[in-house]
Amino acid sequence: MKTKITFIIIFLIVLNGAIFFSFKIYKNNLATIQEQKFINKRKAEWSSLKKKLENRISRFKGKVGLVVEDLNTGWVIAFNEDTPMPSASLVKIPVMLSCFYAQQEGKINLKDSVRLESFQRVSGSKALGSSPVGSRFIIEDLFNPMITLSDNAAANVLIDLLGFDDLNMYFRKMGLKNTNIARDMMDFKSRKEGQENYTTASDMAYILEKLYRGQFLSQEVSDRCLVLLGQQKVNDRIPRSLPKDEVIAAHKTGLERRICHDVGIVYTRKGNFLICVLVKHENKFAQPAKRLISSIALSIYNYYKDL
Fold it and tell me: What are the pLDDT digits (tens) for 62-79?
């Protein structure tokens, strides 16, 4: 009798264990199915977003280079991503990064000072434009005005400090394939002679993702650069139509005659995305290009908002 009772108890324990593990497997399978449904829904909406952006770009009068990446899944939307375009002020991002490279190699010390020369003080210099010739600035203190205010004099000081040869060498070292620097900011004489600074949407996307992943030189340097990009004061493109209380945009603009760009990382509550829009427009004024960039950014944000 005792043996029979013991057998029944053991049987019930085994049965309960089997039921427990079967239920656990069922729950895991159910969660997997629900997760797959969510992924399939996201994929379908991402495909719809791609078509929407493609239609919008096809109607625009001009050439548009675009890279959009979901920084969680790695999904990418790209058009004319490898088409070189005049970089305008986008080149200031790799110029800043090159300074960190130069310090790492012992060529400069970011704590040292540099002198502002008369030829470096050009238009589009909101911070240094009123500084007397001969003024001295700590090298790393020039990053903020160059990035957040797109100050051309600050950029020229740093460009002339490193020189075109070293800058182009560092651009290649950091993995940029189609980005170069051949002239100072606002040097229209050199431009007329055929010397131009070029970049692509894919190059800008590549270096921004390096910063986002903390893979440019170090996590500390990457974070430092992203913080500066997040303090951007020119916000009439990517962040223009986005809710200020819900997103943070770490980005850099570029603007010259018939050239209008904006590239950056947008942080949202439901996911972060990379966006690079380079525009060479036919219109005399930049407003249509600015509206295009802001509408693209809004469409991408709405994709995340509606998840």
Answer: 999 999 999 999 999 999
What one-letter code names the amino acid at 252? K
CA-CA-CA-CA dihedral for 294, 299, 300, 305, to nearest 10? 120
Strand order of the sheet with strand 259-268? 76-79, 62-70, 271-281, 259-268, 248-256
In the chain, alpha helices (H): 2-58, 92-104, 143-148, 152-162, 164-173, 188-192, 201-212, 219-230, 287-305
d(CA 298, CA 286): 18
Query: Rounded CA gap, 85 and 106, in Å?
Result: 32
CB-based burial of residue 204 (10 Å sphere; 0-12 exposed, 13-18 middle, 19+ buried)? buried
- E strands, 207-282, are 248-256, 259-268, 271-281
* Structure tokens given for 197: 């600074």
CA geometry: angle 211, 216, 217, nearest 5 deg: 150
Structure token digits, residue 233: 């004061």
Q: Cα(226)–Cα(277) distance, rounded to whole angstroms?
A: 18
Query: What span, in angstroms and rounded, lies between the C-alpha atoms of 92 and 147?
Result: 7
Report the percentage of the chain scoring pLDDT > 90.
83
If DSSP codes are grouped into helix, strand and coil, which group holds residue 63?
strand
**Local structure of 26: helix, strand or coil:** helix
The pTM of this model reads: 0.88
Contact 215, 243 (CB under 8 A): no
Please tell me whether residue 284 adopts helix, strand or coil conformation: coil
Contact 291, 301 (CB under 8 A): no
pLDDT tens readout for residues 223-235: 999 999 999 999 9
Nearest to 177, CA basis, from 280, 82, 275, 277: 82
